[in-house]
Amino acid sequence: MIMMYEFNKKQKIIMVIIGSMIIIAFLYYIYTKEDDSVIFAEENMIGNIAEDIEESEETTKEEINKIIVHVSGAVNKEGIVELEENSRISDAINKAEGLKENADTKNINLAFKLEDGMKIYIPTIGEEIEKNEQIQNKNRIDETSKYVTSSSGVIQDEQTNGQSEEKKNEKININTATQTELETLPGIGPSTSLKIVNYREENGNFKTIEDIKEVSGIGDAKYENIKDLICVK
């Protein structure tokens, strides 16, 4: 009886040890599984954040690269159209659902590169534009810097052409130019021209023309397009 009692006691000890090992192994499995779940969740969260940032950057880029122009005259649907940056007059016509049958495009450069805020007028065949209307159109160019005479079919007389050429060759002083005058520069829309004016008011006059690159929105590419058209005095 004494030997049997001692054997049962050892057996119980062994069973306790084995049971403890099973419990420890089970707890270890549960712990490591939860840890892996946390790591997996964190990786998913980081991945989602990265995707959101990428989508946000793509959306911002898409918004920046859009321009809005006004198409009127002999097109099937007059009005405001949204285009990709660096679009041509032909693209604007397509957005306006094409030309009417009586449209006259012989004096229109369909490959003309558009800028934000421009107006394109398509005349009809046989449409006559009086000389005083030509002068009024030129005045609109000087005032708004957004009316595209070269794309409107308006044929200017020699005097008007001479005045336009002289104005074209005159460089813009970025230290004194108004917002409207700055918008005559290629690629400079209302938003960027306002930034130039605000930068000038906050930081003083530009010392060199290259300093304009300090303005938000004017990088190397845009600077290359305007550097021969601007000056500082």
Plain-language structure description:
This protein is mostly helical. It folds into 3 domains: 1-64; 66-169, Roll (Ubiquitin-like (UB roll)), CATH 3.10.20; 172-231, DNA polymerase, domain 1, CATH 1.10.150. 52% of the residues lie in helices and 9% in strands.
- Tally of domains: 3
Instruction: Kindly estimate the percentage of residues that lie in beta strands according to DSSP.
Output: 5-15%
CATH architecture of the largest domain: Roll
Order of helices and strands: HEEHEHHEHHHE
Helix content: 40-55%
Q: Please provide the count of β strands.
A: 5
From the N-terminal CA to the C-terminal CA, the straight-line distance is 117 Å
Give the low-confidence spans: 1-5, 130-164
CATH C-level label of the largest domain: Alpha Beta
Q: Give the number of helices.
A: 7
- State Rg: 36 Å
Q: Shape from CA axes?
A: elongated
Provide the CATH topology of the largest domain.
Ubiquitin-like (UB roll)
Lateral arrangement of strands in the main beta sheet: 2-1-3
* Mean pLDDT over the full residue set: 75
Structural class: mainly alpha
Largest sheet, in brief, is: 3 strands, mixed
Output the keywords.
single chain; 233 residues; mainly alpha; Ubiquitin-like (UB roll); DNA polymerase, domain 1; two-stranded parallel sheet; elongated; disordered N terminus
Summarize the structure.
The protein is mainly alpha-helical and 233 residues long. The chain has helices spanning 2-64, 89-95, 131-144, 158-169, 179-182, 190-203, 220-226; strands at 66-73, 79-84, 119-122, 172-173, 230-231.
